[in-house]
Structure formats: C-alpha cells, structure tokens
Amino acid sequence: MKTPTFPPTSRPVVLCLSGHDPSGGAGLQADIEALLAQGCHAAPTVTALTVQDTANVSGFRVLERDWVLAQASTVIADLPVAAVKLGMLGAVEMVDTVVEIMQRLPGVPLVCDPVLRAGGGGTLGKDDVGYAIRERLLPICHIATPNLPEARLLAGLPEGTADQCAEKLLAHIRHLLITGGHGDEAEVHNRLYSRDGAPQTFTCVRLPGSYHGSGCTLASALAGRLAQGEALDSAVRTALDYTWRTLRDAEAPGRGQYVPRRLPLDFCS
User: Fold this and answer.
1) Is the pLDDT of residue 121 over 60?
2) What is the phi-psi region of residue 131: left when phi exceeds 0, alpha when psi lies from -120 to 50, beta otherwise?
3) Which are the contacts of 62, defined by CB distance < 8 A and separation ≥ 6?
4) Rounded to an integer, what is the distance from CA 33 to the centroid of its chain?
5) How far is CA 197 from CA 32, 37, 163, 232, in A?
6) Enzyme group, top EC level (predicted)?
7) Which residues have a Cβ under 8 Å from the Cβ of 207 and sit 6 or more positions away?
8) Of 167, 188, 207, 263, which alpha carbon lies 20 to 30 A from 135's?
9) Which of 113, 114, 100, 120 lies closest to 51 in space, CA to CA?
10) What b-and-e string marks burial along 67-103, b requiring 16 or more CB atoms within 10 Å of the CB?
11) What kind and span of H or E run contains 169?
12) Helix (H, G, I), strand (E, B), or coil: what is residue 61?
C-alpha cells in the first residue's frame, strides 16, 4: 500500500497550556475551537484535570510537572510554535514549569489568561498562585487578559479599579487587557494598558446571561491573531469582536451558564 503524502500545513501552531474541562465549555476545548476559528492549529498540553460543569467547579488536580514538561517538549521538538496561550495552572510548581518551557521558545509571544476562579466562583488555584503568576510569569508574557476580579487578585487590591490594578501590574508586564462585564452598566468596557502608551478602551453592548469559557475564548483568539502576525492593538480588537459574537450566539447545553459558540454551525459540513 502506498503511504499517503500530505502537504505541509500553513496554519500557525499555538501551544496551549490549560486545564481540561469535562463539560467542554472552557479549558482546552475552548482553546482548540477558538484557535480553529482564527485559522490556527492548537497543540493542547494538559496542565490540570477539573471536576466541573457549566455551573461551577467542584475540584481539580494539577498534573505532575514531569508530565507537563514532557507534553510541551514533544510538541516544541516537532511543531513550529508561533504563540503560546496559558490558561489554568493551579499551583506554583506549574508556574515554574511554564517559565522553563518558555526558555525554549525565545521571542514567541505568550498570552496569559490568569485563571484563578471559575465563572461560578469556585477556586482554580491555591492562594499563592496569583502571587507567583505576578512575580515570575507576567514578566515573560507579551500580554495578560485578566477580568477585573482576577486583576484585583493579581494586584493585591480587593477594591481596586481597572486603572489602579493596571498601574501596579504594569511594573511586571508590558501589556495588559483588563476585561469588563462584572458590573451592571449597559456597555462593557475592556481596557488595554501598555507601559509605553495611553490606555485604550474597547466597548461593546452588554449581553444578557452569564457565560462559561469566555475568558478562555478571548485569550485563545488573541494568541491566534498574534500567531497570524497581527499587530497587538489590531489583534486585541479582532479577538474582542470575535468573542462578543461567540457570546451573542451562545447556547445552553447544560443547566448552568451559557457556552460561547466558537465555531459556526456549518463548520464541519
């Protein structure tokens, strides 16, 4: 039998270091779907296993460091990684693992979604993980995409505004996208902060309901746009617009939050 030959892929590869969500709403499945929608190839490396549904998380287990290193090292040796997307890390040793992995990928943009709590409020990391992310991981990131509650945890400002959190966090990272949506205003304000430029605000109409996996969707879409070579400001706008559309078209497969529809219904037809 003749061995089939395949043309080389032209899709940029994004290495995803995230947790597994068995409901399929967030985590690695969200990463994969969002990256497919950006024309990228996702290389998913599992950092943690979770027990969760569309309403909340009830438990998690961080994988052994050696297993995560082995997964990522195998991908890096085989595929040309154009960007890296971080999701749930869950423990300080996983922060250090990511730092070690990124030493093998000099110049590759790293997008950090600092997943510390689930949308339903359940914890996805030990108390010292936020500090480790701020001190050891943010300095090697191209951009981080916390929502306001996560930005407050990272900055150590329980009642801080987005501006106050950004002022503290920009000492650790060059670019920061703090997403809104946690108040009751009619418009959602997403703010992009950079050390060397004025803040930019991207607004969108607030949608009804709550969503499971919106942060994963945004960070993955942004990593995909950067992997495609798009400039940061444009990539942020493209990723935010895409994420809003996935929320507008969201579905309710379970009894909890809505799940973003990251791929069109006819994607596989």
Assistant:
1) no
2) alpha
3) 47, 48, 89, 90, 91, 93, 94
4) 12
5) 32, 30, 14, 12
6) transferase
7) 244, 247, 248
8) 188
9) 120
10) ebeebbeebbeeeebbbbbbbbbbbbebbebbeebbe
11) helix 162-169
12) strand
Give Cα separations from 206 to 14, 183, 188, 232 (angstroms): 30, 10, 6, 24
Residues 209, 71: Cα–Cα separation, whole Å: 36
The answer to whether residues 51 and 57 touch, using CB atoms and an 8 Å cutoff, is: yes
Tokens of 245: 């559309």
DSSP 251: B
**DSSP letter string, 91-136:** SHHHHHHHHHHHTTSTT--EEE----B-TTS-B-S-TTHHHHIIII
pLDDT reported for residue 9: 61
